[in-house]
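[worker-b] picked up task from shared queue
[worker-b] task type: protein-ligand structure
[worker-b] ligand name resolved to pyridoxal-5'-phosphate; SMILES cross-checked against name lookup, match
[worker-b] sequence length check passed
[worker-b] input payload:
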Amino acid sequence: MIYFDNSATTKPFPEVVDSFVKVSSEFFGNPSSIHRLGVEAESLLAQARKQIGELLQVNPREVYFTSGGTESNNLAIKGTALMYRNRGKHIITSAVEHASVREAFQQLKELGFRITVVPVDTEGRVSISDIEDAICHDTILVSIMHVNNEVGTIQPIKEIGNMLKGYSKILFHVDYVQGVGKVALDIQRYHIDLCSISAHKFHGLKGTGVLVVREGVQISPLFSGGNQEWKLRSGTENVAGAVSMAKALRLTLQSYKTKLSQISEVQSYLLKELQALEDIVIHTPSKGQAPHIINFSVKGFRGEVFVHALEEKGLIVSTTSACSSKKKAISHTLLAMNVSKEVAESAIRMSLSYENTLEEASKAVSIIQTTATELREVMH
Ligand SMILES: Cc1ncc(COP(=O)(O)O)c(C=O)c1O
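[worker-b] inference finished, payload out:
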């Protein structure tokens, strides 16, 4: 099997699973308990927070553990809206965000907030001036993703952060879920106030994530309860999940140092070879893209038909994003990039990890080629 669906989820590193099992079985205390078992668990949690803080180059006190990207995005967006609803009712995002951002905005719209959804160009990139033009006297939040999960476009986060520096009352949230370990992001220098990450995208476990909340930034909690995580995220902490996430992040950032050229080489190879095939349109930009995502359409076939045909030959890919691929929704990202509905319906995403090789890429191309030929023969 060739697994090219790493943007949906990655296979956990064995070391990550081992540390989850070890912490779960040996250090099962509740970090809030005052006895020895609780203190041990609390110390492991603090250690994980310190490590993650160091790896993300933020203060450990700015690291809040959550259940993953969806929760971090909801907490950042709704937490800001709740906190500052009396100051302003206007929030800004882009047309290519993940459902957890898009739907959070829609929910806030129903609650009376005004939302501006800035467009993207044909490469899926927002323009800084569109964002600045959208700012009103009562804007409280700008939420823009770092790497698009469907096509891999990198947004100009540094420039947006620089621009927003001039608006002290607007919080800047970045969905960093797809970028972690693949495209560096300097949270502090880019003036990011809130930043979401999710461990299962970098070989950690599902149900673990972080929201970085810069010191001095205040947002409202969404859960009421025992006031864990400095009152921002109540609920008994997933200590084993946090420890294993720290390990996954450390190992992934090691790969970033040593294997970035390898993954980029695999991506360039795939882009070049696919471009040469008949009736294929590539949607991933060839400049300013993350090194792990390749999105393309094989004209004439619905994406899901092609995905299943590839799976039969041992190549695992997806249609668009994992959450919309089962609903058979047309990619809103591709439509926002001005791709026609017909071509967007044929879209396929391949997403790599540092474990993938050129040999796998070469096999994948030949599987795609034979599958297209076979399906064409069946249809004609
Ligand atoms: C860009 C982006 N944001 C958020 C999420 C949601 O993360 P999680 O699966 O941890 O809830 C995903 C997952 O696909 C994603 O790709």
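[worker-b] attaching auto-annotations
[worker-b] The first strand starts at residue 2 and ends at 3.
[worker-b] releasing lock
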